[in-house]
Design a protein that fits this description.
Blueprint: E1 5-13, E2 16-21, E3 24-29, E4 41-45, E5 48-53, H1 55-77
Antiparallel strand pairs: 1-2, 1-4, 2-3, 4-5
Amino acid sequence: MCLAIPLRIAAIDGHLATVEMSGVMRQVSLALTPEARVGDYVLVHAGFAINVVDEAEARETLALFAKIEAAGRRAASGSPANDGAPEPGTDERL
């Protein structure tokens, strides 16, 4: 399975962009997305910006990744998920 991450372009130098997420900076190739500009969000996979995406889509995707990460951490620590649903057998409406 492959995963592309939306990252914001902080700077461009020729065909390379510096992208940022949570304070971590990396360089990626813009060979596949020459239309990308500073401030744009791009989907990054294997060191290449493969698509320009709008900010709302990027933020939504990053929020979903954060939820997945939090669920994984809860599972690893043995903490129950807190999604607002009652635990089985504890529904107060019964």
